[in-house]
Amino acid sequence: MRVNKLISDSGVCSRREADALIAQRRVTIDGAVAAIGAVATMDAVVCVDGVALRPRAARGAAARRHVYIALNKPVGITCTTEHAVKDNIVDFIDHAERIFPIGRLDKDSEGLILLTSNGDIVNEILRAENAHEKEYLVGVNRPVTAQFLTGMARGVRVHGQMTRPCKTRRIAKFGFAIVLTQGLNRQIRLMAEAFDYRVTQLRRVRIVNIRLGALRVGQWRNLTDAELHGLLPQRTSW
């Protein structure tokens, strides 16, 4: 198998990014520096920056019918399956299977987003009445006050409707955390604008029971069995 695909399958990065690592001489096969287009056997020891690759799939994941992954989306990537759109999320991940983003994350925002090859389940996960929690860390241009946090938590008129009550907490002089159970377009930015605040940074760190954790910007990984149990309806076939 080509080394760039082995690296991609391990969840380190996309095949395109793997080619860049190989060109930078950061990849080895059984101790020898790999060349672009190199092929490795399945029992070869492939290392990136001296760290051996580990299989991406957990024991239960290998038998799944569908792909379920978590990506730490960088700023500038657009959550669309349209290949004509520059820097679209599907081309960025470059997965071997056809995948769809579950919901969206603004181009100017970063952090956790889920993708799957199971198109039938996307709308069910996003259904409003399920009220799935999504947690964000937000930087703003003015000091965060108790009045601002209380107002955000009570609800704000956005797109002609009041947002649902939500949870907020101060995390820094110019930063706060917010937990939403809905996903209106540019919701947090518009909510903040209602109080004359401007969002300078927005990162999603949790969706229901799935956390961003130590996943680096631009990296993706398979969801674990425990994460899928908490996310998907119990009748869903993986």
Quick structural summary:
This protein has 238 residues and is an alpha+beta fold. Helices cover 22% and strands 26% of the residues.
Radius of gyration (Å): 20 Å
Main structural class: alpha+beta
Largest sheet: 9 strands, mixed
Q: Count the DSSP helices.
A: 7
Number of domains: 3
Kindly report how far apart the N and C termini lie: 26 Å
Q: Which CATH class of the largest domain is shown?
A: Alpha Beta
Order of helices and strands: HHEEEEEHEEHEHEEEEHEEEH
State the CATH topology of the largest domain. Answer: Alpha-Beta Plaits
Relative strand content: 25-35%
Q: What's the CATH H-level homologous superfamily of the largest domain?
A: Pseudouridine synthase I, catalytic domain, N-terminal subdomain
The strand count comes to 15
Kindly report the average pLDDT value. 88
Seen as an oligomer or otherwise, the chain set is single chain
Using the 3D structure, state the CATH architecture of the largest domain. Answer: 2-Layer Sandwich
Shape, per Cα inertia axes: elongated
Uncertain runs are: 57-62
Helix content: 10-25%
Chart the SSEs and their pairings.
Blueprint (H helix, E strand, L loop, with lengths): L2 H7 L5 H9 L3 E3 L2 E2 L12 E3 L2 E2 L15 E6 L15 H5 L6 E3 L7 E7 L2 H8 L7 E7 L5 H9 L2 E2 L2 E2 L4 E6 L2 E6 L6 H7 L5 E9 L2 E2 L8 E3 L2 H7 L7
Parallel strand pairs: 7-13
Antiparallel strand pairs: 1-2, 1-3, 3-4, 5-7, 5-15, 6-7, 8-12, 8-13, 9-10, 11-12, 13-14
